[in-house]
Specification:
19% helix, alpha+beta, Pnp Oxidase, Chain A, 3 helices
């Protein structure tokens, strides 16, 4: 099954501004950041360029699950939850380097594997 239903693909295509990316540390302490360098990769991944991660990187490397929130131009909110993989080489990293702005370091690509998608309080996947 494709993780991004057509309605979510359309919503993503019309998202506005940066996304909010949330992780937790080993003690359960949440961390949320704005991220502007984000793209789909394949049928079930959203890739976030690690340009200036610090706590986020540590949380991902420690096994944190994550959530990504975006808002459409129509002011609908979507939340995508899943598990991370972290890439410093390979196809996901190489792809990120093609779209991440050159002014940012792009030290790695954090890939969020879609496990759940919500629009408001409604679970879509």
């Amino acid at each position: 099954m494709k993780a991004f239903p057509e309605s979510v693909q359309q919503a993503w295509a019309s998202h506005e501004g940066p996304v909010v990316l949330a992780t937790v540390d080993a003690a359960g302490q949440p961390n949320a950041i704005y991220a502007s360098s984000v793209r789909e990769f394949g049928d079930d991944l959203l890739v976030v360029a690690d340009n200036y991660f610090n706590k986020t990187r540590a949380n991902i490397l420690a096994g944190s699950k994550g959530a990504l929130v975006f808002i459409t131009k129509g002011h609908k909110s979507y939340q995508i939850k899943g598990s991370f993989t972290y890439h410093t080489k390979g196809p996901i990293f190489d792809d990120m380097k093609t779209w991440n702005p050159a002014k940012h370091p792009g030290v790695a690509a954090a890939a969020l594997k879609v496990e759940q998608i919500y629009c408001g309080g409604e679970r879509l996947v």
